[in-house]
Write a structure and sequence with these properties.
By secondary structure, the protein is an alpha/beta fold. The protein has 2 domains: 4-16 and 102-233, Rossmann fold (3-Layer(aba) Sandwich), CATH 3.40.50.1000; 19-97. 42% of the residues lie in helices and 10% in strands. It contains 9 helices and 6 strands; from the N terminus they run βαααααβαβαβαββα. Helix 2 (42-55) packs antiparallel against helix 3 (63-72) and helix 5 packs parallel to helix 9. The longest helix has 16 residues, at 18-33. The radius of gyration is 18 Å and the shape is globular. The N and C termini lie close together (9 Å).
Length: 234
Amino acid sequence: MITTILFDLDGTLLPIDTDNFIKEYMKLITVKLTPYVEPKKIPEYLMKSTYKMIQDKNPQKTNKEVFMEDFLSKVCCCEEEITHIFMSFYAKEFKKLKSCIKEYPEIREIFAILQNKNIDIVVATNPIFPEIAIKERLRWIDAHTLPFTLITSYENMHFCKPHVEYYEEILLKIDKKPEECLMVGNDVEEDLAARKAGIKTFLVKNFLINKNNAEYVSDYTGSYTDLVSFLKNF
């Protein structure tokens, strides 16, 4: 019996074109970091350190620790200073990216259905951002005050998607068995990886990401509208 639903954020709970979002994000963060880092190098440094974080599977280091260690090796700032810069950015400039999202009324209906059914909700976004950034994105869909069981962030996770360890760590944190959970996402590689941990999946196709045009298997697939119908009846 499913008691918990894990939701991806970008392109799933948050109706957004991820590529466009990243492009606009890079523009804003470059302005913020320019006094401290050579502007032309900022996107490269951020992407390399993010990739390092995604690939790392050391259970002794949080994603934040991996990212900071790599990023600080490239720039002339101390950790305290760069952390302050990032936190200031997410508290102020980051909210401008709300203009990237699209309106889908089904999102609010999804939350209403699950609350009525007393289903636990996990925000299972790829934990490459700090919690402040994830909560700000939840604010854009009026979901920032919901009682989520867990919000994965780079502060509290040690693995990223598509590693199976990411999903196993979630199961440990929420004390659930795989058969009690369902993963809902839009990325073939990252979100369907939950099946490796024994978690069933629902692939949302409105903002489908299949970078390698790979063949895939999901327990359920459909649009936002199909997801609403599925949640009403499961």
